[in-house]
Prior knowledge:
Layout: H1 6-26, H2 29-50, H3 55-76, H4 85-109, H5 115-138
Helix pairs in contact: 2-3, 2-4, 2-5, 4-5
Amino acid sequence: MGEFTAGDAAAALARANVLETTVRNGARWAARYQVLYGCAAGLMVLSTGLLKAPYGVAIGSAFWVAAISGLSVYAARQRVARRGYAVRRGALIGVWGVLYAAVLVPGLLVFQGVAAWWVAGAVVVALPGLIGGYLEARR
Length: 139
């Protein structure tokens, strides 16, 4: 094995700092992604619950497909993500799914057209993305 000098160590530390800055700056997209996900989820729930059937479901579904398609392309084009981001994003989607079902099922069965239910439900469904985006921005 070769010997390392103080210059080698300094160069390695400088390279590590450059990589850290690249990842930190390059991973800011993840906060935007999560906030946009939360906002899109809330708008989809509002559309589904407040517009007359079948228009609300059709418009909400079309909007959701467009939003998720756009977010997926956006995420795929990013160069870096922080360690563990895939797990955090999976948790975001899992929590969102549970909350979405908890709002949608009773909403369609009992609370059709009740603005208070759907507005509160939209906020609840948006929370995983909004909180996730906030936490990601703080990292």
